[in-house]
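Listing S7. Sequence submitted for prediction.
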Amino acid sequence: MLTAALTSSAFNATLTKHKNGSREKAQKAQKEFANFASLSPANFTFIKFELKNLSMTTKKKLTKKKIQTKPKTKPLITEQPQEPETVAEAKEMEKNPYWLTTEDEVLLRSPEPDDIFKSSDSWRVFRILGEFVNGFDSLATITHGVSVFGSARTTEDNEHYKAARETGKLLAEAGFEVITGGGPGIMEAANRGAFEAGKISVGCNIELPFEQSANPYQTKSLTFKYFFVRKTMFIKYSNAYVIFPGGFGTLDELFEALTLIQTRKIRNFPVVLFGSSYWKGLLAWLTSTMLNEKNINSEDLGLMHLTDSPKDAVDFITKCCGFNEK
């Protein structure tokens, strides 16, 4: 209904523009707005000019431009490209990874006064509910999970990859189910260790603009649209976290767990930092700055266990959880 209304309004506006023109021009206009009608709703959000200019009261005119044919294989764009000036350009740019819109992005955007999609947020709760239900049903049998986090950019020849693979293997052999974000790098390594041990290896993947493909070492694989649903699954079905060197996402998982432990939302939840040389700078800052400013207590620093040994990490988790495989 919404697409039809916008298309009809915009098409009529363009026909008015060509009222003294030929039938050929009118047909071109109709084809242009047929392209608009086929745009997916999730991608309306980045095409601001359609929402503002293609309304019932619009008096602005679209300038149709010829689209340059681009090669099929394109490098990833690191800088924001210019916004499209025509619907046809928007349709073409929709293929660019920069413009791919995820459900998370649509949900988290701030509504504008004239945002015609603001009423859809309340309905989106049903999709979110569905993800929670699917996650709970799929992971209900995971009772001794340990989540392993780390960079997706870590290569197979890296020492941290090898250590994560060994950690996954030892965790699996100790009776734990290994859970990761399901992607490459450290996640793949931990899944691989558990998979090669013939045990349960879980991957909780996430839909991203730049596609993150699931690694092949999973016995149970899920894909989530919403980060907060996925993060809930990590916490709910884990008995411990092992944090390998990583970036913002790894730090996000680390500090969320520490916050929940500190506020006693979760208890008896060991957090292992793997790689002393990588984490020593962060730990020094926490001690010299955050602790010194009295923003945390000395006991809070004891929430983390630092190690360079896969065996020590697994032994520490086993001891804290009081779990031994029968």
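Caption to Listing S7: primary sequence and predicted structure tokens for the chain studied. Residues 1-21, 33-78 have pLDDT under 50 and may be disordered. The chain has two domains: 2-101, 127-321.
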